[in-house]
Amino acid sequence: MTQDSYDPENIFARILRGDIPCDKIYEDEYALAFHDVNPQAPTHALVIPKGQYISAQDFSAAASDAEIAGLIRAVGHVARELGLADPGFRILANHGTDAGQEVPHFHIHIFGGGPLGPMLLTD
Ligand code: AMP
User: Fold this and answer.
1) Is the entire prediction scored with pTM above 0.90?
2) Which atom of ligand 1 approaches the CA of 109 most closely?
3) How many domains, the chain?
């Protein structure tokens, strides 16, 4: 997945518009967080910026300092709200083809709820 312009019909854009529902955890002026529909850990949340950013690269280059701070603070808030701060959790963002990014709206995964195993799966 590598593209130049933001696709306003991507699934997370549609969630942000309220066109389709999500299992919401948290929302503020910068971010929306919801449970992943196909969880890869006992707890698997997604935190997305409200602005139209395709990926980690796009977000880091084009988002304002307030948007970047807002998203990272939202990640911390969600982890605390889900009770993950003490036992621990993992955050991850896929960018582009090699990482297997599926949805072209920047998102941070939060995994937790039990031991998560090695950082990367290697066959
Ligand atoms: P990535 O591969 O990093 O782009 O991750 C995309 C994630 O979005 C996957 O973990 C999907 O399970 C998740 N996902 C796709 N559609 C939805 C949806 N409608 N609601 C919640 N999570 C979704």
Assistant:
1) yes
2) 3
3) 1
